[in-house]
Amino acid sequence: MPDETSDSEEATVNVAVISGMGVCLPRRIVSNDEIAPPLDVSDEWIRTRTGIARRHRIEAGTSTSDLAAAAGRAALESAGVGTADMVLLATSTPDRKCPSTAPEVAWRLGLGEAPALDVNAACSGFIYALALASSHIRSGAHASVLVIGADCYSTIVDPADRSTAVLFGDGAGAMVVRAGEEGEPGSLLATTLGSDGSGGDFAAVAAGGSRLPHGARYEAAGAHHLALNGRQIYLQAIRRMSAATKSVVAAAGWAVDDLEALVAHQANQRILDAVGKRLGLSPGRLVGNIEDVGNTAAASVPLAMADAAERKCVPVGGRTALTAFGAGLTWGAVAATWPAATPVTSPAETRA
């Protein structure tokens, strides 16, 4: 029989659309003046090298799932929905080594038996999870996905190591993405991901996995703390985020000059400035909040985006690129139009 389906009736490909944004930052704020003296540095020393003035840190008894559940609930509220078909939790500081943290978060949010999994791509985790969510929605497998980035790097950073202690803060950011149409604000139009395992030692916690099981001898050597090769991370982050941004912008059919906002992983202000300069973007188009929250790892991109949305510094529908670089090495980028969602902020939900 001949195909009687008209062009107007042909099935269209779903597009993932950001419809809600949620934020959770621990109540405790740690200023440079608090952490500088034990490290034999100053507020000026930290600001000059990192652009950070303060960061949030969890209190004893609070964990990654507490922040993730709160941010996820806030994102659902922002989207005006009570559920999602799937949960992707980007984190490299899970509550436990095994099992993953996402199923507990989904349970705490009352999402029934929705599939839930952790995505561990370090600071690139949220971009990886957002790309996965887009793929699931475009394929028709799910109509909505709750994507959360949550990390508590204060639990793996050596407080006596000035190369890491000044950088990291704790927090969680979340987005609801749903099936929609390409013309809607918040549409995810293109994604790109990459990795290079040859640089896996540039930023790593050596002990605790199967290669070096956690034990007293590794505790003494400090192998359970995050160690950074600062020079390599600096060079790789600039190179990878710049290239990923160019790639995803081209895939969306734009030019870099068309961008109205670049939301890059808030690793270090000098890295962010260098990426902007390499791309030829004016400082006004670089979205960031590193001064107030520090490097929040997988939570970095959604927290920066929510902060900008709250301040209304990017027009709804504006051409936007999100990019991140992390340990692994991993990197990625997403091209999107700026969402219309209003962020909702929630305190951590400590489990009884």
From TrEMBL:
Residues 117-197 form the Beta-ketoacyl-[acyl-carrier-protein] synthase III N-terminal domain. It comes from Streptomyces ortus. Catalyzes the condensation reaction of fatty acid synthesis by the addition to an acyl acceptor of two carbons from malonyl-ACP. Catalyzes the first condensation reaction which initiates fatty acid synthesis and may therefore play a role in governing the total rate of fatty acid production. Possesses both acetoacetyl-ACP synthase and acetyl transacylase activities. Its substrate specificity determines the biosynthesis of branched-chain and/or straight-chain of fatty acids. The last Arg residue of the ACP-binding site is essential for the weak association between ACP/AcpP and FabH. It catalyses: malonyl-[ACP] + acetyl-CoA + H(+) = 3-oxobutanoyl-[ACP] + CO2 + CoA. Homodimer. Residues 266-270 are annotated as: ACP-binding. This is Beta-ketoacyl-[acyl-carrier-protein] synthase III. Belongs to the thiolase-like superfamily. FabH family. Keywords: Acyltransferase, Cytoplasm, Fatty acid biosynthesis, Fatty acid metabolism, Lipid biosynthesis, Lipid metabolism, Multifunctional enzyme, Transferase.
